[in-house]
Design goal:
This protein is α/β, with parallel strands linked by helices and about 260 residues long. The protein has one domain: 3-Layer(aba) Sandwich (Rossmann fold), CATH 3.40.50. It contains 7 helices and 4 strands. The protein has a 4-stranded parallel sheet with strand order 2-1-3-4, with helices on both faces. Helix 2 links the parallel strand 1 and strand 2. The protein is globular, with a radius of gyration of 19 Å. Bound molecules: zinc ion. Zinc ion binds next to helix 2.
Length: about 260
């Protein structure tokens, strides 16, 4: 198997892989406040782990390369809390499109955005759509929680609180599994953390927002107290399986479609 990492390639190997029809997976994440207890790199650590493990699995069945994780995202709604690096929504959309344009310039014709931060999601889908309108290429985009929703529900991930939520029981479980030493247990939340019942509670595709409460109360959605490292690694496993499955499926569609248009 070729090296999975785009950034381990040379211009020569990448040019050849572009001609051979490799898809490039671009992981999107964030550097933003995650409550008083989790590191600001939470989404990047989670996203990078999922992207690497899922791509490693999928690469056994479909040709793909994994690009470096874009570790700064659109996190404007977290800036007020500190500990956040962010692009505005218009800059972020443009940045994603220009990353795609760079790949197109390098000869790649299949681009897949894989996301680990909610604030990036609408711009990721828009960038994927704009690129496929402007160039004769394939694009795809998804957030890990959408790909793994049914697998996570089957293993009762909802017992942690919101899935994925923000800095609550679910994300804290994932970090407990990946880098537990970074959790500040002296500052984890009291069990009385109030929930914002309306966050993500409407029908799929709807949005309800309130100033200062876009990510829950005090910048997190639910209590971290139920978090559990063993459950976190079980959730990660389910996410990696679902994501790898989707990458193979998308890779197959892109290959079939490439043949049809010839
Ligand atoms: Zn997060």
């Amino acid at each position: 198997m070729n090296d999975l990492l785009f950034h381990h390639g040379t211009r020569e190997t990448l040019k050849r892989q572009a001609q051979e029809g490799y898809a490039v997976v671009v992981p999107l994440a964030a550097t933003e406040q995650h409550g008083p207890h989790l590191p600001v790199f939470t989404d990047s650590m989670i996203g990078e782990h999922i992207a690497f493990e899922a791509c490693k699995k999928a690469a056994m069945s479909t040709k793909l390369l994994l690009a470096p994780t874009l570790v700064v995202g659109c996190s404007q709604h977290h800036l007020a809390y500190g500990g956040t690096l962010s692009f505005s929504s218009s800059t972020y959309l443009l940045m994603l499109k220009e990353i795609g344009e760079s790949l197109v310039s390098g000869g790649f014709r299949k681009i897949i955005y894989l996301n680990a931060h909610g604030g990036n999601e609408p711009f990721m889908h828009q960038a994927a759509q704009d690129l496929a309108v402007q160039h004769d290429i394939w694009t795809a985009s998804a957030s890990y929680w959408s790909l793994s929703r049914s697998a996570l529900m089957e293993i009762q991930a909802q017992e942690m609180g919101m899935v994925p939520g923000h800095a609550g029981g679910f994300e804290t479980s994932l970090i407990a599994s990946l880098a537990g030493h970074l959790i500040r247990s002296d500052t984890t939340d009291s069990p009385k953390h109030p929930q914002c019942s309306w966050i993500n509670a409407g029908p799929p595709g709807s949005f309800v927002g309130k100033h200062s409460y876009l990510t829950g109360v005090d910048g997190y959605t639910d209590s971290a107290l139920p978090a559990d490292a063993a459950k976190g690694s079980m959730y990660l496993q389910a996410i990696i399986e679902s994501t790898a499955h989707w990458l193979v499926q998308v890779g197959n569609w892109m290959n079939e479609g490439a043949e049809v248009t010839k």
